[in-house]
Automatic annotation (TrEMBL):
Pfam families: DUF1501. InterPro entries: Alkaline_phosphatase_core_sf, DUF1501, TAT_signal. It comes from Brevifollis gellanilyticus. This is Sulfatase. Residues 130-155 are annotated as: Disordered. The lineage of its organism: Bacteria, Pseudomonadati, Verrucomicrobiota, Verrucomicrobiia, Verrucomicrobiales. It comes from the Bacteria.
């Protein structure tokens, strides 16, 4: 942890107001050499030269059969009260409570046959890694050093930062009553240098800047370099190297206003902000907020240079009152997701930014006595957009009751293999080392999805 303090006069050295999000913890960037900086500058002059992912974790697992896979031929206790509506792609129908998404189905890919959760236990791990949680559970609030890393951390490690002033990996995930619901995806054995920058979450107090001058910041940078050189001679564990990277990340961000600008939604037009809406910034139960401004912030972050942005949305664990709670969640998700996809297309980013929205498993076909749907790891759903993917299609299908895959089961690992390929990474040839120095592949034996690419 690094803390920079000085007299506070309410303004930063560049004249911007000091904001809570300038208390920075866990920046997912690596230090750049002068050649790297010059390369980044040259790329900026020739247009966008990197690709990004926005991953939306629908905390607690949404009911696929009430969203993308309605079963009108099933008994009432299975199909529920919602009606399907037509979309702008003939033959594809989705819930009546997603009219905005229905009007842009040509830009979307519903997957109706997701599987991979081993036992239906709540854990965001599979959504961020493509792998089942470790046998002894992966629900620790800060993850474990021995765990496989999340996609954001892997990309931070392999690709580094696209811009020296922007975190490679950002997590828009406030703390939640159930810790996995508040996870942005953990770094695991890749270490703290590749954890998510969280402008509104855990670790935000780790670094404080109180109106100190750039010259004074440079003095402290030099002092730290001296200490680190001394410690490096004594330490062979890699900890000092990791802290060097962490400190460099902090200095890079604090001497630029680019991250500050990306997080400042006031720079958007009123029309754009109204399109996204506000939602609710308060956590929904023990889950995440229904915060629509996070969708807009995610777009601003990838546009400014972040490679991976995760955001957590709502709390979809509806063991009771499934339909009243869906009437709160579905229209807001419909607004935020549709605004994001539309915005990416209008800004020419639809080929360079892939969007994935999903939960950790599906819900039971039969509605229980409390009007809810319980955990169902056998099949669930997902929604994809952007990435230059072949959109306007449905992938996979379930049986008449929505309880088992009947066509093209899709494992989480297949989606991850596709995302890595989209980023220009071969997941079957590229490895990262674990804590024992052993090379580990990014996914298991899963292949990229030919339907998408």
């Amino acid at each position: 942890m690094l803390t920079l303090s000085g007299p506070s006069h309410g303004k930063l050295c560049d004249g911007y107001s000091r904001r809570d999000f300038l208390r920075i913890g866990g920046l997912a960037m690596g230090g750049l050499s002068l050649p790297d900086l010059l390369k980044a500058e040259a790329e900026a002059r020739t247009g966008r030269q990197f690709k990004s992912i926005i991953m939306i974790y629908l905390c607690g697992a949404p009911p696929h059969q009430d969203m993308w896979d309605l079963k009108m031929d099933a008994p009432l206790e299975i199909r529920g009260p919602y009606k399907p509506i037509s979309t702008n792609v003939p033959g594809i129908r989705i819930s009546e409570h997603s009219p905005r998404l229905a009007r842009m189905m040509d830009k979307l890919v519903p997957i109706r046959s997701m599987w991979g959760s081993p036992n239906g236990a709540h854990d965001s791990f599979i959504c961020y890694t493509g792998r089942p949680p470790p046998p002894n559970g992966g629900a620790a609030p800060t993850g474990r050093a021995s765990d496989p890393p999340s996609l954001g951390s892997v990309i931070s490690r392999l690709k580094g930062q696209a811009d020296p002033a922007m975190p490679a990996f950002v997590g828009l995930s406030p703390k939640a009553g159930h810790p996995p619901y508040g996870s942005p995806g953990h770094a695991g054995y890749l270490g703290s240098a590749h954890t998510a920058f969280r402008p509104n979450g855990a670790g935000v107090e780790d670094l404080k800047l109180n109106n100190i001058s750039v010259a004074r910041l440079d003095d402290r940078r030099s002092l730290l370099k001296g200490f680190d050189h001394f410690r490096r001679e004594l330490d062979h564990s890699g900890l000092v190297e990791s802290m060097d990277s962490f400190n460099q990340q902090a200095f890079n961000v604090l001497t630029s206003s680019k991250l500050l600008n990306a997080l400042d939604l006031n720079q958007e037009s009123q029309k754009t902000r109204e399109r996204y809406g506000k939602g609710d910034p308060k956590n929904y139960g023990d889950g995440a907020p229904l915060n629509l401004e996070h969708f807009l912030m995610a777009r601003r972050l990838v546009e400014a240079g972040s490679r991976v942005v995760t955001l957590n949305f709502g709390r979809w664990d509806f063991h009771d009152n499934n339909y009243p709670q869906l009437l709160r969640h579905l229209p807001l998700f419909d607004q935020g997701m549709s605004a994001l996809v539309e915005d990416l297309h209008e800004r020419g980013l639809s080929d360079d930014v892939a969007v994935v929205a999903w939960g950790e498993f599906g819900r039971t076909p039969v509605v229980n006595k409390d009007g809810g749907r319980d955990h169902w790891p056998r099949v669930g759903g997902a929604l994809l957009a952007g990435g230059g993917f072949k959109t306007g299609q449905v992938i996979g299908a379930t049986d008449r009751l929505g309880g088992e895959p009947s066509e093209r089961p899709v494992h989480f690992g297949e989606v991850f293999a596709t995302l890595y390929k989209f980023l220009g990474i071969d997941p079957h040839k590229t490895t990262v080392n674990d804590l024992q120095g052993r090379p580990q592949y990014l996914v298991d034996a899963w292949e990229a999805m030919p339907e998408l690419i």
